[in-house]
Inverse folding.
């Protein structure tokens, strides 16, 4: 197949591109190289089935020929990361809304199947329990800088479902939960690459708040396998899926695991979000997916546990340092 991956030079996108090329597809990565980079796809730049197109999903004219060319579209391009969202709200909202609107309108015009990447953030402020796809989405919080990403993505989900229900467009929606692995950058806030880089550099490990908040981390390779399988599953069309793992760890324990694994003697320090962003940030105390639905549809089982993920991320950062 011909497959278009918007955000294909990004963290998840570049891993997806590799898997699709390995499976024998022709792949175009469409990316504006902001959070993504040429570096992420350097291993496949010379692959005859691959092409990197520099473009912005907000610009319909540049995107159109590639949607027409493709048999399937994975729409992963997004403005993301706490830092981007907090500091560049207009860019975040327009990229996440207009970009998805363009992708869906073009997919509708040329009748192409689309996967839309959403986020666990759409659950908004929730009580502490494993989150099911049928739980309420964001509707309450009004702090624009904090919640614009979640709000925009929730609107993207609605738009994708509207195209599906009104026009029969084949769409699959996935909500990624803290996906981690090599090539993720800590520049925009993500905790795992930040802690690993800090530990390797002997810098303080910056735990935000008391560190008792928990997350459930998923290996990028597991997430990529999940979305490829969902795109191949006809029953998944018009449905929303949590993509995550059931493993839960506190941020304090994560910091300790990273220190143990790297043998680093970096101190652990606690910072308030205000100190980091100069603005109050509503952090979630817990964010765990219920993955019953995705298991039922495609038999999804995460294969790499947190230890395995950390080993891969440490290896990646050590390699980067040697280059
Ligand atoms: N976090 C932290 N130190 C950092 C970056 C993040 O303690 O340097 C915390 C953050 O407050 C959150 C968790 O790690 O509780 C996960 O943050 P991340 O930005 O990776 O993803 P989020 O869950 O916020 O989408």
């Amino acid at each position: 197949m011909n497959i278009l991956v918007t955000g294909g030079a990004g963290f998840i996108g570049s891993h997806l591109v590799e898997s699709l090329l390995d499976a024998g597809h022709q792949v175009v990565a469409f990316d504006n190289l902001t959070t993504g980079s040429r570096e992420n796809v350097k291993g496949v730049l010379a692959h005859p089935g691959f092409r990197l197109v520099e473009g912005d999903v907000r610009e319909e004219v540049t995107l159109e020929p590639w949607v027409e060319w493709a048999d399937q579209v994975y729409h992963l391009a997004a403005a993301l990361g706490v830092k981007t969202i907090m500091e560049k709200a207009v860019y975040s909202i327009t990229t996440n809304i207009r970009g998805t609107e363009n992708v869906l309108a073009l997919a509708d015009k040329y009748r192409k199947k689309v996967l839309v990447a959403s986020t666990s953030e759409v659950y908004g402020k929730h009580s502490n329990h494993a989150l099911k796809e049928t739980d309420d989405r964001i509707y309450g919080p009004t702090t624009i800088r904090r919640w614009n990403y979640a709000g925009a993505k929730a609107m993207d989900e609605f738009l994708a479902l509207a195209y599906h229900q009104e026009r029969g467009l084949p769409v699959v929606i996935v909500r990624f939960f803290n996906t981690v692995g090599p090539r993720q950058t800590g520049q925009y806030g993500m905790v795992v690459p930040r802690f690993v880089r800090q530990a390797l550099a002997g810098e303080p490990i910056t735990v935000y708040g008391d560190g008792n908040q928990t997350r459930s981390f998923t290996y990028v390779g597991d997430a990529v396998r999940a979305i490829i399988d969902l795109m191949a599953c006809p029953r998944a069309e018009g449905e929303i899926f949590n993509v995550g793992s059931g493993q839960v760890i506190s941020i304090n324990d994560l910091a300790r695991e990273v220190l143990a694994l790297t043998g680093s003697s970096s101190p652990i320090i606690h910072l308030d979000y205000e100190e980091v962003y100069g603005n109050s940030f509503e952090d979630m105390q817990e964010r765990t997916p219920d993955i019953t639905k995705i298991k039922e549809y495609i038999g999804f089982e995460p294969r790499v546990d947190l230890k395995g993920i950390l080993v891969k991320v440490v290896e990646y950062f050590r390699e980067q340092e040697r280059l």
